[in-house]
Design a protein that fits this description.
Helix content is about 95%, strand content about 0%. The chain is mainly α. α2 (about 20-65) runs antiparallel to α3 (about 65-110). The radius of gyration is 25 Å and the shape is rod-shaped.
């Protein structure tokens, strides 16, 4: 019984070991994930700043009123839209990095 259990454990641990190619693929994927996260983080910081500026302009527009208030509101809306675009662009860049890495890994596996 113990022998059978020991053999099963050895067989399962051998099956879990990764080949050098698999380990390299894991490293590439992790690197791509980290680069994508860094891009998204930096964009998030930039978008947060834009949203804060938009909020400040919205408050000013309410206080100013009239045409000046309308102009400030337009600027605030533009900054809020820009923040959304910054986030969307970062998401797309991060996805592109991950997809390019996956394509590179698949190409190397097919050789």
């Amino acid at each position: 019984m113990r022998t059978l259990l020991a053999l099963a454990m050895i067989a399962s641990s051998a099956a879990c070991q990764r080949t050098p190619e698999q380990q390299q693929a894991d490293l590439l994927r992790n690197d791509a994930q980290q680069r994508g996260s860094a891009i998204e983080s930096q964009a998030g910081t930039q978008a947060d700043r834009l949203e804060q500026q938009a909020d400040a302009l919205n408050n000013e527009s309410k206080q100013a009123g009239g045409l000046t208030g309308e102009r400030l509101k337009v600027r605030a809306d533009a900054l809020a839209k820009e923040a959304k675009i910054v986030r969307k662009q970062a998401d797309m860049q991060a996805d592109a990095i991950k997809e390019a890495t996956d394509a590179r890994i698949k190409a190397s596996e097919s050789r």
